[in-house]
Task: inverse folding
């Protein structure tokens, strides 16, 4: 029984259904004023049909809804003219406000307002004394029919917009979580990749020296131990604090890594960035770390140059080595590390250029060398290698990586706490 009643009056809607139920009972007062049974039966039937149509089409859409409203409008007009009860107009005004289509709402609103005004005028024209006595209530009805649909329509529209805004905020939150996961993945790759590459190199070297030069092997294993401790500390710092790396500190670690790999390190320019946002500095630090990791792992270089050039509106960083360079087939093959560098720089409206040092100008196009240090960097790096003779005699192309980034980006300022 309770379930059937809930099909008529929806659950958890407060006192609203019971207030509207009073409007359903009220017309019977006007109907039973007539002494003849035919009028009472006709009026009762119209009330029942009106209520059934209202309930069946309350959540309907399309032709079903418009058909139900048309029937209800006809019953409302008949009740106004024959039984002097115009207050079904409140039902329809409220119901019309539920229409989502702007065109449908406008059409129904105009038709209903004209119909209510016409039937009330007709009742007055018939000079029904009882109807004239209801003039204050009729005035309230006309105001309600004029205002209630707009109020209901705008309220529901606001509810829908609020729901869409909440959905959009949830999607943005999900995207931020995904973006943060990708950032953490890149950070882990850059942090652990560099240190583990050095550990691998040192371990291989120690394995080869263990029988020939035990003292040197012990020294290499000591470096492995120290590098592992550094890697562990960096991971702890990243996971515990999610702190951004300072360029000056990162270059210090880069120099340590290169020297441990027996690669000469040269730094040109001031690593202290006075006008660059913390987030941009963190991105550049990670990119330099990845670039140097590639030098250690793949270049077979004997020398690595890092040049920092600060302009009023942007920052240029050059990483160049004298190694074997990039083979043409692999120039487009940007693995997880290089692709991560590209994505990081694009995120801050920067850019990345990678190529062989012999085929690229070491100075970005359109820039002027800011003094002697930049002039040194603009000259091609001398060819050289770890071994004596072979590579040096023939020359090696080396690899040049350009990183260009603006000092500040509005979005980046929000991330300045990193």
Result:
């Amino acid at each position: 029984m309770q379930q059937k009643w809930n099909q008529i009056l929806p659950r958890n809607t407060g006192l609203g259904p019971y207030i509207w139920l009073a409007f359903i009972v009220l017309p019977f007062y006007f109907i039973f004023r007539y002494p003849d049974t035919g009028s009472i039966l006709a009026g009762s039937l119209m009330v029942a049909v009106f209520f059934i149509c209202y309930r069946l089409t309350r959540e309907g859409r399309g032709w079903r809804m418009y058909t139900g409203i048309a029937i209800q409008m006809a019953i409302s007009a008949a009740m106004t003219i024959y039984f002097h009860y115009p207050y079904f107009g409140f039902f329809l005004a409220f119901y019309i406000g539920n229409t989502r289509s702007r065109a449908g709402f406008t059409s129904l609103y105009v038709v209903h307002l004209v119909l209510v005004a016409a039937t009330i005028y007709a009742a007055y024209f018939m000079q029904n004394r009882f109807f004239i006595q209801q003039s204050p209530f009729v005035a309230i009805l006309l105001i309600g029919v004029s205002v209630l649909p707009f109020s209901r329509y705008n309220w529901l529209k606001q509810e829908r917009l609020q729901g869409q805004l909440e959905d959009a905020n949830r999607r943005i939150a999900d995207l931020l979580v995904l973006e943060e996961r990708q950032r953490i993945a890149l950070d882990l790759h850059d942090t652990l990749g560099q240190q583990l590459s050095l550990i691998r190199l040192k371990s291989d070297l120690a394995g080869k020296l263990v029988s020939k030069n035990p003292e040197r092997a012990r020294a290499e294993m000591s470096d492995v131990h120290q590098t592992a401790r550094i890697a562990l500390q960096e991971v702890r710092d990243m996971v515990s604090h999610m702190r951004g790396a300072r360029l000056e500190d990162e270059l210090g670690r880069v120099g340590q890594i290169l020297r441990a790999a027996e690669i000469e390190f040269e730094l040109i320019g001031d690593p202290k960035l006075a006008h660059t946002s913390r987030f941009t500095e963190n991105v550049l630090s990670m990119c330099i770390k990845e670039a140097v990791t590639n030098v250690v792992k793949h270049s077979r270089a004997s020398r690595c140059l890092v040049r920092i050039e600060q302009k009023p509106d942007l920052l240029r960083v050059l990483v160049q080595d004298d190694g074997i360079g990039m083979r043409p087939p692999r120039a487009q093959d940007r693995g997880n590390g290089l692709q991560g560098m590209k994505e990081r720089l694009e995120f801050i409206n920067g850019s990345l250029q990678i190529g062989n040092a012999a085929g690229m100008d070491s100075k970005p196009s359109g820039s002027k060398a800011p003094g002697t240090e930049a002039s040194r960097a603009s000259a091609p790096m001398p060819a050289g290698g770890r071994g004596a003779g072979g590579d040096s005699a023939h020359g090696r192309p080396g690899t040049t990586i350009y990183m260009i980034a603006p000092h500040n980006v509005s979005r980046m300022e929000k991330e300045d706490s990193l």
Summary: The chain has two domains: 2-133, 246-364+371-418. The first strand starts at residue 264 and ends at 268. Residues 135-209 form the longest helix (75 residues).
